[in-house]
Structure formats: structure tokens, C-alpha cells
Amino acid sequence: MTEVTSPYKHGVPCWVDMGSPDLRASLDFYHSVLGWSGEIGPEELGFYTNCTIRGKRVAGMMKLPEPDMPIAWTTYLAVDDADAAAARAQEAGATVVVPVMDVMDLGRMALLRDPTGAVVGLWQAGTHIGAELVNEPGGLVWNELMTRDSTTARDFYAAVFGYTYEDMSSDGFEYHAFLVDGRPTGGIMTLDANWPDEVPAHWAVTFSSDDTDAAAEKVRQAGGMVTAEPSDSPYGRYASFKDLHGAMFSVMQNTGEDETSATP
């Protein structure tokens, strides 16, 4: 269990959120699957909703401004200076989706599209540091970039966030963990020819679960879809899903034996 009370280190995934066409239905779904609670936020803030475990923020949701917009989880990387990070990102080949802006006193943010096409957020903490609870059931445990050009991605994120990498590849599988202060805090995976062409580059999110098989059954009962059945991995029992509106996410039942995890 990790409770986070101070801003995340520069480059560490610190927050995830998603847009939903029906916030009440999404809250009910994730309450059933991950145990989240939350009250829909005010209209003047786009109905932005903080999802919590034991009163601690773990993720966010907002109402989609247009019902036909894509529905997906967005990963935010902590930055010490959002303006400087956005400028470095543009110099390294990113395009701006949402320019750097203040979010009241909560923090300063931007959304960028990296050179391989994946959208990623920047978050400079104010009063909102990001996820207050990670590495326990319902909390964020891992973020990874899925891309068809791992080399370009690694160069980009190293230039902008100072990442170094640990090569975890094996036969037919290219994967690099990115390190902050020598500690794995996320990954970059190559989408090879086995992945359908229509799967774009994207940041994937994984939440912790105390029972992956039970989570899969809860997803089905709540109207979602199991896209990868529960299976064992060296890091825990893992499964992937789509929620009732199509947003993709995964869960992992951690063995407690590995230090690779979300970390402040």
C-alpha cells in the first residue's frame, strides 16, 4: 500500500482520467469492478469527478463534450514546470493537443501527442498532486506506452523527461521499462505485426486488484468486455478489459514479490 502526500517526481506517471458519455454509469461500473466511490463534479468544471478509495483520489472522470469523441484513459506524467516540459516536447517532435493551462489552484496541465501518435498529459502539481493512493486494490499500479516505433518513443521521452531504460525484451517481444532515479515506473512496449493495424499508439493503464478472476467476472456482470482472460505473469495475475463504453484498462493481482510498480 502506498499513500502519496507530496508531488510526484518529474517523469513519474501521477494521474489518469477519462471522458465518459454517462458519468453515473461509468461510476457504477468502476465501483462494481474496482470499488471506487465518487460524486459527479459541478457543471462549471465539466462535471469533473474524482474517484476515490477510502477517501483518497485514485483517478478522474469528466463528461465528454461531444458524444462521438473517443473514449480512453489518459496518463499524466508529473513535471516540475509544465511550460518548460511542453517546450522541450515540441522541440523533440510532439504536437500540442491542449496548450499549457492553469486548472484553478489544482495544478497546471497540457495534453500532447508524442512523435509516435500517442496522447499523453503533463501535470504540474498545485493543490492536486495526482493519485493519493497507488499499488493497492483499486489504485494505479502501472502505465505503459504501446507504440509501433519504440526507438523514436524512447528517444523522445528520454529527451523530455530524462528517462533511462531497462531492456526487458524477449524473443518476439520488445519491451523497455523506463526508469526515474533508477527505479522502474512504467514501460514502453512495441506493437508488432500481431496487433491489428487499427490499434493506435496509446498509453495503457493497469490498476491493482486483489482477485483478477473475480474482477473479470465483475466486468462481464457490469456490462464490460474481457479482452484478455486472466493469466499468470512474472509480476502477478493479469487481465485486460473494455468498460461499458469501450475504454480499455487492465488489472493485475500483484504477487507482492516484485518492486516494479507505480511510485511517487
Q: Can you walk me through this structure?
A:
With about 260 residues, the protein is an alpha+beta fold. The chain folds into 2 domains: about 1-125, 2,3-Dihydroxybiphenyl 1,2-Dioxygenase, domain 1 (Roll), CATH 3.10.180.10; about 135-255, Roll (2,3-Dihydroxybiphenyl 1,2-Dioxygenase, domain 1). About 15% of the residues lie in helices and about 40% in strands. It has an 8-stranded mixed beta sheet, covered by helices on one side. It has a 7-stranded mixed beta sheet with strand order 3-4-2-5-8-7-6. It has a two-stranded antiparallel ribbon with strand order 1-9. α1 (about 25-35) packs antiparallel against α4 and α2 (about 80-90) packs antiparallel against α3 (about 150-160).
Brief characterization of the structure:
The chain has four helices and 17 strands.
List the helices and strands and how they pair.
Blueprint: E1 2-3, E2 13-20, H1 23-34, E3 49-53, E4 56-63, E5 73-78, H2 82-91, E6 95-103, E7 107-113, E8 119-125, E9 133-134, E10 140-147, H3 150-161, E11 164-167, E12 175-180, E13 183-190, E14 202-208, H4 212-221, E15 225-233, E16 236-242, E17 248-254
Parallel strand pairs: 2-4, 5-8, 10-13, 14-17
Antiparallel strand pairs: 1-9, 2-5, 3-4, 6-7, 7-8, 10-14, 11-12, 12-13, 15-16, 16-17
Helix pairs in contact: 1-4, 2-3
